[in-house]
């Protein structure tokens, strides 16, 4: 049948069009990933080299390594609180900006500014704000005789500080995506709700927010995976301190690989991180599909 | 038609390439690729690259990068055998590790061939000797000094402390709401808190090893080290500025320059920023002195940086030329004059009238103090072993945790001792 032949030809064309992308992904993403996986089964050490042994000893060691276990808790604290703060703040600002029209629309541009600042610069800004001797915040409150505590010298404080810096730098990402989603929601719905006597707050929580759910879930997932990769903020703001209180898993992989030269062990931590992120993505993608169907 | 153009083109290309080939080869012989990490003296060295070319006809491609970038770049270059670097910035603290990994070429012949070898400060030079061979020539030797605000100490009626025990007394007397008595680095890291803390350790008679280098049994959990750690903790928490538990050297410098701290003990490159009139509001009030000592004497910190040649370098000869030039009296004198810090590694530089005048203006005996501190400093201030970067990080993290009250000083030393044993057992 000519129709089938035509569609088979189309199929072939599509498949051919996939070749460049598959090649790129294969060479630049899959190959290094496989390399890392292979490395994680060796005992390769930057200085001592590889003894030729292969095995799962690195993965066994992971679950006996107290520093690794505690790094997961630190990572989860940074991710969960960070994503919550970013989603709430980003959504709140997006909802506010959505209603602003006319010549004040430029305000949107201002709110996006932090997103353009490189993370190392963000870290330096917040490091000085959280260093009591340098911080204008401390200087301001000192006028009234109030001593603002030094955040970076306690574990809770240092984690809070990193979450604040991360939120400042990345809420615009959430804001932009939620703003786009808000513009796709018909204003008729709000009008109808108003006619039925719903207050604006009620209309937001009953109508707008449920419609935003899939968007919020997606944006939270993106942010969550990004926060698993925390590095510059920790490196610059705390060097993993106080003590080891902010050595999140990704930072710990760096410590093992470059500071301690244990490349293979570092690779096994990275493999764990990859599987962890993949599992979360998979789970949330499924949840999202369920939500969209409903 | 197309064919002829094609033929003509390839003929031209062929001609061009044969004509260019000898020049290219020649140029390659006369080039040297230098990788340094950013410090005032390396930036100063890069600025002098034209002088090197004028003297030798060799083009030096000097790349000065941030320290973290440097680490990853040399790691890739060395492990991958890229041979793209002819001269590499070689901190003494890494030499043992790099030599064990086979990353460095010995430069013994170059060192022995120097007519004025005796002019090089022997401590810094000997630190580059591993198993009888030299693996680098030093261009920078930083030592530990104390800086204190004479006006504030006078007002409190106290003299500058000679020992860390006296420092506790002085700090108590000087500390006020406006100005904390002392600021030192506390941030964890072998080059951060572990650059300054061993000054206390060694003053109290504490050690890293039972008897370095003969008996390498870890000896961290000793009463001497505990005393040192307790002193450090008291000084930082009771008499340091707020937030000291996360201070690294930039925060220390800022606190001194803004009048938020009255004293520090740190490297020359840090304390000289307190007396730098261009940056410090209290440059006239700060006085430099030797770091405090203790029952076991004074042990100023020492950090030495030099230049080495990566293993398998194809331009080893030009590389050696560059190293000789960069560590010569002439070049080091230029650096001492152009840059803010007197961290040169040749005795003759201090004889230069211009250098003397420059540093005498800061403080009459600045250069003498530095030489005295360098003479007091022991080469293995931080142990010269391949595993030091790892051990230093582990101890630094535990010491930092103790200062920030996350564990007791006893627990911190015990944990550090245990981790040190594990690292050494590999």
UniProtKB/TrEMBL annotation, chain A:
This is Multiple sugar transport system permease protein. It is a multi-pass membrane protein. It is found in: Cell membrane. The chain crosses the membrane at residues 21-41, 72-97, 109-129, 158-182, 203-225, 263-285. It comes from Palleronia aestuarii. The keyword Transmembrane applies. Its main location: membrane. Residues 72-284 form the ABC transmembrane type-1 domain. Belongs to the binding-protein-dependent transport system permease family. One of its GO terms (cellular component) is plasma membrane. It holds the Pfam family BPD_transp_1. InterPro entries: ABC_transporter_permease (IPR051393), MetI-like (IPR000515), MetI-like_sf (IPR035906). One of its GO terms (biological process) is transmembrane transport. CDD domains: TM_PBP2. Keywords: Cell membrane, Membrane, Sugar transport, Transmembrane, Transmembrane helix, Transport. Gene3D superfamilies: MetI-like.
UniProtKB/TrEMBL annotation, chain B:
Keywords: Signal, Sugar transport, Transport. Gene3D superfamilies: Periplasmic binding protein-like II (3.40.190.10). Belongs to the bacterial solute-binding protein 1 family. InterPro entries: Bact_solute-bd_prot1, SBP. It is found in: Periplasm. Its main location: periplasm. One of its GO terms (cellular component) is periplasmic space. It comes from Palleronia aestuarii. CDD domains: PBP2_TMBP_like. The keyword Signal applies. SUPFAM superfamilies: Periplasmic binding protein-like II (SSF53850). This is Multiple sugar transport system substrate-binding protein/sorbitol/mannitol transport system substrate-binding protein. It comes from the Bacteria. Residues 1-27 form the signal peptide.
């Amino acid at each position: 049948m000519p129709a089938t032949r035509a569609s088979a030809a189309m199929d072939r064309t599509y498949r051919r069009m996939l070749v460049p992308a598959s090649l790129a992904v294969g060479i630049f993403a899959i190959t290094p990933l496989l390399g890392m996986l292979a490395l994680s089964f060796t005992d390769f050490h930057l200085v001592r080299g590889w003894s030729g042994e292969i095995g799962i000893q690195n993965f066994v060691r992971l679950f006996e390594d107290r520093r690794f276990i505690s790094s997961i808790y630190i990572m989860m604290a940074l991710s969960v609180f960070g994503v919550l703060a970013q989603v709430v703040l980003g959504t709140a600002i997006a909802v506010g900006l959505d209603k602003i029209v006319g010549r004040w629309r430029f305000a949107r541009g201002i709110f996006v500014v932090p997103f353009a600042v490189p993370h190392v610069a963000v870290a330096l800004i917040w490091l000085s704000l959280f260093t009591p001797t340098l911080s204008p915040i401390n200087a301001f409150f000192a006028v009234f005789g109030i001593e603002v505590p030094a955040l970076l010298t306690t574990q809770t404080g240092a984690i809070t500080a990193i979450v604040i810096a991360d939120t400042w730098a990345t809420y615009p990402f959430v804001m932009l995506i939620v703003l786009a989603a808000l513009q796709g929601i018909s204003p008729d719905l709000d009008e109808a709700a108003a006619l039925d006597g719903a207050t604006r707050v009620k209309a937001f929580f009953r109508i707008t927010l449920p419609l935003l759910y899939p968007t919020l879930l997606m944006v939270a997932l993106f942010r969550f995976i990004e926060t698993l990769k925390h590095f510059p903020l920790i490196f610059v703001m705390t060097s993993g301190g106080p003590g080891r209180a902010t050595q999140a898993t990704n930072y710990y992989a760096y410590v093992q690989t470059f500071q301690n030269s244990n490349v293979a062990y570092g690779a096994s931590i990275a493999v764990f991180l990859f599987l962890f992120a993949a599992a979360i993505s998979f789970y949330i993608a499924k949840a999202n599909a369920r939500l969209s169907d409903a | 038609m197309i064919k002829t153009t094609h033929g003509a083109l390839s003929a031209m290309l062929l001609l061009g390439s044969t004509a260019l080939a000898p020049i290219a080869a020649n140029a390659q012989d006369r080039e040297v690729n230098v990788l340094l990490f950013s410090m005032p003296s390396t930036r100063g060295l890069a600025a002098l690259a034209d002088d090197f070319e004028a003297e030798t006809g060799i083009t030096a491609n000097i790349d000065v990068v941030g320290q973290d970038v440097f680490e990853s770049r040399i790691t890739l270059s060395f492990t991958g055998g890229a041979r793209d670097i002819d001269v590499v910035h070689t901190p003494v603290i890494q030499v043992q590790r790099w030599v064990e990994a086979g990353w460095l070429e010995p430069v013994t012949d170059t060192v022995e061939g120097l007519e004025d070898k005796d002019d090089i400060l022997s401590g810094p030079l000997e630190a580059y000797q591993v198993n009888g061979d030299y693996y680098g020539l030093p261009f920078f030797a930083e030592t530990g000094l104390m800086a204190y605000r004479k006006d504030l100490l006078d007002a409190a009626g106290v003299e500058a402390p000679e020992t860390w025990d006296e420092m506790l007394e002085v700090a108590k007397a000087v500390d006020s709401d406006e100005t904390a008595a002392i600021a030192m680095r506390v941030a964890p890291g072998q080059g951060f808190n572990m650059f300054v803390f061993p000054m206390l350790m060694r003053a109290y008679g504490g050690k890293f090893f039972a008897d370095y280098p003969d008996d390498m049994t870890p000896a961290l959990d000793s009463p001497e080290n505990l005393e040192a750690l307790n002193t450090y903790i008291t000084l930082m928490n009771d008499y340091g500025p707020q937030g000291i538990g996360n201070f690294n050297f930039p925060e220390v410098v800022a606190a001194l320059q803004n009048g938020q701290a009255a004293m520090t003990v740190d490297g020359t490159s840090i304390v000289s920023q307190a007396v730098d009139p261009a940056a410090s509001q209290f440059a006239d009030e700060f006085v430099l002195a030797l770091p405090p000592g203790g029952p076991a004497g004074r042990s100023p910190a020492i950090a030495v940086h030099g230049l080495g040649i990566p293993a398998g370098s194809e331009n080893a000869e030009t590389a050696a030329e560059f190293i000789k030039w960069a560590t010569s009296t002439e070049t080091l004198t230029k650096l001492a004059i152009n840059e803010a810090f007197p961290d040169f590694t040749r005795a003759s530089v201090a004889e230069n009238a211009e250098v003397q005048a420059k540093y005498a203006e800061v403080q009459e005996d600045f250069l003498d103090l530095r030489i005295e501190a360098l003479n007091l400093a022991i080469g293995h201030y931080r142990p010269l072993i391949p595993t030091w970067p790892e051990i230093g990080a582990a101890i630094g993290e535990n010491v930092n945790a103790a200062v920030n009250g996350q564990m007791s000083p006893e627990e911190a030393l015990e944990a550090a001792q245990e981790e040190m044993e594990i690292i050494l057992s590999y």
